[in-house]
Structures are given as C-alpha cells and as structure tokens.
Amino acid sequence: MSRWDDGPLVGRTEELARLLAHVDRAVGGRASAALLAGDAGVGKTRLLRELGRHAAERGLRVLTGHCVDLGDVGLPYLPFVDLLRPVAADPDLVPASRENPVLTGLIAGRPGAVVPVRPPAEGQDLSGPLRHRAAPPPVDDGRLQLFESVAGLLCELAANGPLLVVLEDVHWADRSSRDLLRYLLARLTDEPIVVVASYRADDLHRRHPLRPLLAELVRLPGVERVDLAPLPDRALGELVRDLAGRTGGLPEHDVDDVVARAEGNAFYAEELLAAGLHGERLPLALTDVLLARVEQRSPAAQRVLRVAAVAGRRVRHELLAAVGEISPDELEQAFAELVHHHLLVVSDDGRYRFRHALLREAVLADLLPGERVRLHAAIAGYLATHRDAGTAAERAHHARESNDLPGALGASLEAASDARRLGAPAEQLQHLESALALWSAVPDAAERAGRDQAALLLETARAARTAGELHRAVALLRSALQVLGPEADAETRARVHYTLAQAMVRVEDEFGAHRESTAAMALVPAHPPSEVRTWAAATHARMSYAVGRIEEAEAAVEEALAAADALGLDGAWSDIAVTQLRAKPGADPEWVRARLDEALLRARRSGDLDVEMRALYNLATVAFEAGRIDEALGWTRRGTRRAHDRGSDWSYYAAELRHLQVTALYMTGNWDASLAEADLLARVPEIAAHVRAAGLLVMVGRGDPGARERLDWAHGLVSRLRAHILLDLVTAASEIDLAAWQGNAQTALEVARAACRRLREEWEDDHLGVLRLAGTALAPVVDAATSARRAGDAGGTERWVAAGEELVGLAGDAVDTYRRWWGDTMGVEATAWQARVAAEAARLAGDPAPELWRASAEAFRFGHVYEEARSRWRLAEALLAADDRAGAAVEARSAHDVAVRLGAAPLRAAVEALARRGRLELPGHRIVDAAAVLTPREQSVLALLAAGRTNRQIGAELYISEKTASVHVSNILAKLGAGGRTEAVALAAARGLLPTA
To answer: Helix 369-385 vs helix 392-401: angle between axes, to the nearest 10 degrees?
Structure first.
C-alpha cells in the first residue's frame, strides 16, 4: 500500500463530489456509472478508496475487482472473479448463487467449464436489446447465460441494499471482461447499483481496444466520464508536507522542488520522497518504471526521445529533423508512435513536449555521457546558425553542456539581457551568475563580455536586489570590493561601498551598513559636488540615523540635499527627503505629505524604481500609522502594481508594500483578499517570507487547521534567517493567537517572552511590537489565573498572576523606550494595543473593568475590525459581571456579527459560549431554558455539582439521602450525554444551563 493511501485526500474535492453524486443516485434507487480516467500515479486508486469509504458510510455494499496486465491471452473475466469472490465466501448473502453452475464456475475462475468462451459474431451487439430484463434476448453466442447470471446476481445483491461495483485498471481488461462490462452498463438501468471503472488515460493509444468501448459507453444514459487531472501545485505541496511530516519534515525549498518535478503526480512525488533524493538524480525504482514504457517503442522512436530529452522539455520538429540523424519517413513514423502512446504531446505552438517532466529526466539519465555531450554540441550548433529557433538561454545551456565555455559565457550574458528586458530579475540573476561561474575558465572573458569582472559583479548584485535576494546581493558586492582592490578608481570603490551599505541595512545589519557608508564618504571629496558623493552622503545620512548618530546624519542630509539640487539628481533628492522625514516622526502631517508627494514625483521623473518604491511605501506607512487604512491600501495597491509591471515584485520596498497590503486588508476585515494577496505569487524569496507568513493572521483567526503547517514553515525560516524581525513578529503573533484560542497559556507566554527578547535585541529604539505580543498573550494567561482563582488554587493563581504582570511590564517598558527615542508619536494601532493591555491588566487583578474594555474597543475602531470585535466580546463579559445584561447583549451581538462575517470560528464560538452562560440572545441562537431540560431538583443538584460537592454533601444540603442524590446525578449525566461529573458541568456551562452567578 502506498503511504499516500492512509493519509488525507487532498485536491480531489470536486471529483469525489461527482462520484458521490452517483452513489446518491444508487441510494435513491437508480443505476448509473462513472468512467474514471487519469494518468498512472495521479491518484485514481486513492480516490476510489475514499469513494468506497464514503459509500459504505451511506449504506452501500462495495465490491471491487482489479484488472492485471496479462495481455490479450490473460485470464478471462478476472476482475469479475475478483469482485464476486466475497459473495461466494458468504453463502447467506445470495443463496441462489450457490445453485447457479455458471456463477460457480466463474467464481472458481473456470468460466469456460460452463459455457464456451468465444467472441461474438462479427457485427453482433450484445448491449442493444438488453436494456431491460423483459426485452427479447439476443442471439446466444455461448456467453449470454454467464452475462445474465452475473447481472442477476448483482440485482439480487442490490435488492438487499444499494451496491457499488468498482473495476480498477480496465485498460488491462481482457476482451471478455470488456464485453461483460458493456452488457452490465446497458442491462442495469433500474437497480440501485453504481458502477465505477477506472483506467489509465496515458495507456490508451490509438488502437487500444478500450477506446471504442469508452466511446460507446459514454453515450449510454447515466454514464459519465470523470477526468482526474494532475494535482494542483498547492494540493500536491500539502500532500508532500504530510508525507514528509511522518519522517521528520522537509525544508520548504525541497517541498517546492518535489512539487515542481512531480508535476501533479502523487506517485512520482512519493517516490522522490521515499528515495530521500530532492536534487538532480531520480530514484532507481522510478527510473525503471518510466523507462519501461520507452523500451517498448521502436528504435527510431527511442532515438527521437533521446534527442528530445537533450533538447529540452519542448522541442521543434525542425531541430529534431536536423540533429536526429533519422530519415524523414522514419521521423514522421516515430513522432506518430510517440504521440499515440502518450510519451510526447503536441503543444499549442506546434512543438513537441514530454508528457511528464520526469519521463525526460529518466531518458536523460539513461544516456551515456559521450552521447549526451555530442547531442548538446549538435543542438548548440543548430541554434547558433538558426537564431530564431531558440533563445539565448537555450544556447547557453547547450554550449555549457557540450563544454563550449566561451560560447556559454556569451550566450549567458545575452540571456541575462533578454531577461532584464522582459522584467524577469530572478532569471536575469541566474544567467549572470552562470556567466560569473564561467569567468575564470574563459581567457578573454572581459573582451567577450564588454566589461570587467567587477562591473559584472555589480550588475549581478543589482539583479539580486531586484529579485529580493538581498543576502546574495551583499555577498556579490563584497566580492566586487575584493576584485577591485585598494588600487582601483576611488569613485568606483565608493559606489560599491554605499551600494553595499544600502543592501546591508535591509538585512538588519545597521552597524555594518554605517561602516560601509563611512568608507564611501572617505573615498570621494565633498567638493566639487559629484553624483557619487551625493549618493554616498544620502546613504550615509540614512545609516547614521539608524545607529543613532544624529549630528552626523544631519550634516550628511544637508550636504546631500544641496548637492542633489545643484546637480539635478532627483533620485538622490527623493531618497534623502524620505530619510529625513522618517527621522522626524513628530513633524507637521501636512508638511510630511507635501514632502513625500514631491519625493514621489522626483523619483518617478528620475526613473529610479527603487527610490520610487521607497516613496510609495512611506506614503502608505504614514497613512497606516495615522489610522487611515483605506488610504494606505490605495498606496500599497499602486506600489505593488507598479512593481509588478516592472518585474520587481520582490525588490525590498515592493515586498514591504505587499506585506503592508496583506496586513491592512486583514485589519479592514477583507480576509479573503488578505489571504489571497499573501499567497498571490508562487515563488517568494526568503527575505520576503513575512508576506506569506502574514496570511497566518487570517488562518488562525478562522481556525484553519492548515495554520499549524504554515507556522512550522515560518518557524524554520525564523531559525535560519535569525534577523528577519518582521517575519519573527508575524510568526510569533500568530502562534500566540493560536495558543490563546486553544487555551494554552504556557505556550503563549513562552512565545511572547522569546519574541519580545529578540525584538529588544535587534531594534534598540522601537519595541512597540511588544504591545501586540503582550496584549494577545495576556488573554490566555489571565484566563488561567481566573480559573485558578475560582478553583481555590492559590499556587496556580500566584504563578499566573506573576506571569501576567511580567507581560504587562514588558509592554510598559516598550512604550517607555519608544518615548525616550521618539517622544509621544505612537501610531493609532500601538495606542489601541496599549488600551488592550490596560484592560487585560485589570482583568488580571480580578476587576472586570468594563470602562477599560470599552476604551479598548473604541481604540480599535480606527479600522481594525477583528480586534474591535474581540474587545467587544470581553466588554460583554465585563458587563455581565457588572450585572448589565442589556449592555452585554448589545456588545455580544456586535462581536458575533463580525465573527460571522469574517468566518472567525474561534471568536464566534467564544461569543456564543458567553451568550449561553449569560443567557444572552444572539441572532439565530435561542436561549435554552434549564427548566425544559432539568427538573427543579436536578437544577439544584447541578448547581452543587458545579460547586464540587460530593453526593453525600449534596444530600446533606438538600435534605435528601445520599442514594437519592446519586439518582439525580445519574439522571443529569444521562440527559446531558456526559460520561462523568466534570464533563456534565462543562456541558451544562456550555449550554447555558448553569446559574449565571
């Protein structure tokens, strides 16, 4: 059995629903059939197992028969023998079957012992006249008695209950089995029977005997074809993670690799995982499976496959004709053979491609090294003389694989230029790095490239920054400094130093960035003003602010602004203007907006996309921090659209804009859009992982079980990247929230402590993120303290109160630190979380404090729909404690409406539980009257049970005997469906049956 068979079914909801519709027809007394088509390994058997399970739950008897690849001389009726054996093993099931010699012979595997097994006469049709049992029989060819006996047996079985008949792999069925299947689907029309037959679509070549039968069957009433396409990438990724999780997990980049190579095929993915190979080589067992189909083809067809495998996933007819060394007639025959047997398929553009990428890998792995090099050389030569037949990237690949390193260098640089023009920075980076790898092996590399190695390193670093590969950019810029050496031109070295500073600050290395910007300033004089010095000063100002050297920063700002105006350097002016604004958070909002508008205008005019993105990000951030969320979304949409149009989706500020957009959409309650934006682009560089991780906020808020899996992925990146603070914050906030809803106070506390510590270590001047972490973690901690206090657990109460006070203290320290640096300039979100911490602190002390919870709810009204609703839930709880039932009902309804609209299942459940306990009316939820469930005496007994009384104590307090008290307790347990006293109290509380006090 495949490891996949005992895991969850993924990506097949629609197909399963279509098959279950046939099951429902059988339950309703109607016959129908489904023909399930799909490539080998795509998951037909797994889907049929799930169908069988669901069918059995709906009361159907499931009979399954399997076909085996024995060729046309195989055993006749084998799948029907297989599915009827359980019937023979149960003599009480259909007694008539024991007396039927035809069936006895069939089940024993000897159909010919009863009736002669011979094909029908030419042109004879067994299905036409047999659509109803009363129809006149056709001419008997010697098999009619057997066919009718099988049909009759299935009808007798169905008379005792609906029946599901599953026939697997009918592409291997013998002729007699195919004829019997045709007969049954035509014959069984009024019985509660569903027949599902599966077959491999990739095995059905033009002359396959099943093809005409399928064409005939799909025309029958009630017969449907269900195509099982390859699994979507997201579903296959889920499957891979599940399989890998059983053996310790798998890094996300390896999951992506397996998903890409398996191309939707579950079997291929499982084989790749089972072999523990996620790189270039294919597992031997999988290679053998794939090559088995290749080895059945003619020599000419195999030659075409070998050339096509070397040429690439898609290949033109002309190229194969030119390098395949096959005559035109043989080539045409080979193509026809390969297409008809589903090894190659014809694309819309007329090119041939492999049916599956792993088939190409297997053919490549089977080539001898010399043959592979010769083929690469031939293809490279063809592409060099026929430039319109392929791309520069293809020429580079074939030149490199044929050891033509000079040709590969030139083609790689040409491919990089093509990628840059197409707005594909990741591909541009790949080609430039290939050229760098070849540099030392090509003697005249600089002459061929038209620039020196340092210039190529700088170009590659720019591509890395645009692609979001910031750590790679830092490494490339450091290499450029080494290549230049101390004797190189001072302006060139200065440009590398300040560019390196810009990259380092984006990977949270502010002091290293300041060191590099200082070096740049030292290399170029201030007078006369120059472009290099202006950019060095602009960069140095920003780095000096980052490390707290304010006077140094102000001097650099003054110099850079003056020089940028004098030289007309709009990009530099915009960059330094934004830096200046961010260093002065208390400035007049109107002046800030006007300054940012001018910075955006100048940046756009300069053509510097990076500075333009920075201006747009700061316009969005200013609006966001002021609580103008809709305005912030307007800027983020403009920025992400502009970045996408320029092929820079994952440049630094483009990624930050997208993260802000995901967060803002979450706040406004547009959760579907928020999650879609987080998952919009398939490939996310690690430095932008916080964008995808931000989707956790919605997943946790909705109680999505997939949140745990994404949290594990984010944790892996946090531990590897270390200084990615935004990723750390969103991951910690989501995990705390998840622990809070699960009532796991200890986990929430530990995660909050660790995240707060890391934030203080990395960001000296701004710890306001601690407010959210502490405010969220306080909820389960205060709940734990409250429970311990109610239970009379003095030790537990003391421990959880101390933990809560620690969190309150962390929040207070964060506010004090921020104010020391920036004064009283906290944004509206930080102010709202501060109000939440204050309300939780009061609850920790045993004070319901409805006025503090109302203040928290009002503070979040700036646009954070979900947190406002959570505050109103707690406000309703506080008002109940203050005996304001009318006010509590209003707040509970408000929180409940939001929870329902957002699909926030945990919040909705919490509000509904509160309403039941407090007997508050909610839309669609009727208050349960305890008198309708329990007698007055049972209500009294239940109240004492909740107080922890024993049967003897209950009897004493109610003046009844202990035995009578025990009877009342037993009745309560029975009415509530509880297995014990504690469960009964919990159920009663959840249903609002306990007194509100």
So the answer is: 150
Domain co-membership, 39 together with 182: yes
CA distance 621 to 627: 10
What confidence tens digit (pLDDT) does each residue in 224-256 have?
999 988 888 888 788 887 777 655 566 666 777
Q: Are residues 272 and 199 in the same domain?
A: no
**What's the pTM value of the predicted model, to 2 decimals?**
0.70
User: Does 766 fall in a domain?
Assistant: no
CATH number of the domain residue 969 falls in: 1.10.10.10
Structure tokens at 420: 């840059």
> SS3 for 860-908, per residue?
HHHCCHHHHHHHHHHHHHHHHHCCCHHHHHHHHHHHHHHHHHHCCHHHH
Other CB atoms within a 10 A radius of the CB of residue 132 amount to 10
**Cα-to-chain-centroid distance, residue 300:** 43
424-463 per-position pLDDT tens digit: 898 999 999 999 999 999 999 999 999 999 999 999 999 9
DSSP state of 250: -
Helices marked H in 485-569: 490-505, 510-523, 531-546, 550-567
Which pLDDT band holds residue 327 (cuts at 50, 70, 90)? Answer: confident
SS percent in the chain: helix, strand, coil, step 5: 70, 5, 25
- CA nearest neighbour of 853 among 779, 958, 955, 932: 779
Helix and strand counts by DSSP (H, E) for the chain: 49, 8
Question: How far is Cα 971 from Cα 94, in angstroms, rounded to an integer?
Answer: 46
Domain hosting 78: range is 3-229
Task: Out of 64-73, 259-268, 925-934, pick the least confident.
Answer: 925-934
Both 188 and 69 in a single domain?
yes
Q: ω before 528 within 30° of 0 (cis)?
A: yes
Q: Element (H or E) spanning 345, and its range?
A: strand 344-346
Token digits for 325? Answer: 């060394």
The CA distance from 97 to 92, in Å, is 10
| CATH number, domain containing residue 220 | 3.40.50.300
**Same-domain status, 266 and 117:** no
Lowest mean pLDDT among 72-76, 278-282, 398-402, 616-620: 278-282
How many other β-carbons are positioned within 10 Å of the β-carbon of residue 266? 27
Chain center to CA of 816: 39
Q: Contact, 660 vs 644, CB < 8 A?
A: no
Q: What are 816-825's contacts with CB under 8 Å, separation 24+?
A: 817/765, 817/766, 817/767, 818/765, 818/766, 818/767, 818/768, 821/765, 821/766, 822/585, 822/586, 822/765, 822/766, 823/585, 823/586, 824/586, 825/585, 825/586
Considering just the CA atoms, what is the radius of gyration of the chain in Å?
36
User: For residues 496 and 469, is the Cβ–Cβ distance under 8 A?
Assistant: no
DSSP lists the bridge partners of residue 66 as 168
